[in-house]
Design goal:
The complex is a heterodimer of chains A (115) and B (116).
Chain A: E1 3-5, E2 10-14, E3 19-21, E4 24-26, E5 33-38, E6 44-50, E7 56-58, E8 64-68, E9 73-78, E10 87-94, E11 103-105, E12 109-114
Parallel strand pairs in A: 2-12
Antiparallel strand pairs in A: 1-4, 3-9, 5-6, 5-10, 7-8, 8-9, 10-11, 10-12
Chain B: E1 5-7, E2 10-13, E3 19-24, E4 31-37, E5 43-50, E6 53-56, E7 65-68, E8 75-79, E9 88-95, E10 106-107, E11 111-115
Classes of the chains: A mainly beta (115), B mainly beta (116).
Chain lengths: 115, 116
């Protein structure tokens, strides 16, 4: 089955500093990769996706992600973190092993932006 | 354009009761997915439905759980004879028609089920 791994439990960053949330993937075939953010007691909000094309993908709220095929990674980045970016971030991959569009999620990373 | 709607937002059931969770997809979306989020865990796929069809239910427990997406009305996730281990947040997501794997899924706010 396809899968993603988010190796860190929590990411702490000072406001104004660059933010990176790591994700590595394991797929057979071409990966369709997604990032979502979840605020407390809310649903997931779509941030960005990689399907094909440019390795640097730009998304909502100033976030971007870099697809690296050789390292099988899809790290989420933001040049300057805001306190309001504190949330739970999920990386996901389309799980093509089942022949449909179901997503396989990582366990999530809690991001804490320190004022 | 309203997003994915789920109700109720919070549901408390005693052990042995039934829980019914409802999901209305975004307008124009015909694919519905249900995921479960246990505390301190990521989301786990449960079931994928299109109108009047269950496409993939391989993530759903074999007993007590069922799902439907009728021609008219919302998708329903039904849990019979709930147990404490069913306490979780249940999220519904929808995506546009066509089997396009590159379409992102849009999530509802979730139903938080507590079994006492």
């Amino acid at each position: 089955a396809q899968s993603v791994a988010q190796p860190e439990d929590q990411v702490n960053v000072a406001e104004g500093n660059p933010l990176t949330v790591k994700c590595t993937y394991s797929v057979s075939g071409n990966p369709y990769l997604f990032w979502y953010v979840q605020y407390p007691n809310r649903g997931l909000q779509f941030l960005l996706k990689y399907i094909t094309g440019d390795n640097l993908v730009k998304g909502s709220y100033g976030f971007e992600a870099e697809f690296n095929k050789s390292q099988t990674s899809f790290h989420l980045k933001k040049p300057s973190a805001l306190v309001s970016d504190s949330a739970l971030y999920f990386c996901a991959v389309r799980d093509t092993s089942y022949g449909n569009n179901r997503l396989a999620f990582g366990k999530g990373n809690q991001v804490v932006v320190i004022p | 354009n309203a997003g994915v709607m789920q109700n109720p937002r919070h549901l408390v059931r005693r052990r042995g009761q039934e829980a019914r969770l409802r999901c209305s997809p975004m307008k124009g979306h015909s694919h519905v997915y249900w995921y479960r989020q246990l505390p301190e865990e990521g989301l786990k796929f449960m079931v994928y439905l299109q109108k009047e069809n269950i496409i993939d239910e391989s993530g759903m427990p074999k007993e007590r759980f069922s799902a439907e997406f009728p021609k008219e009305g919302p998708s329903i996730l039904r849990i019979q004879q709930v147990v404490r281990g069913d306490s979780a947040a249940y999220f519904c997501a929808s995506s546009p028609p066509g089997n396009r794997g590159f379409s992102e899924q849009y999530f509802g706010p979730g139903t938080r089920l507590t079994v006492t």
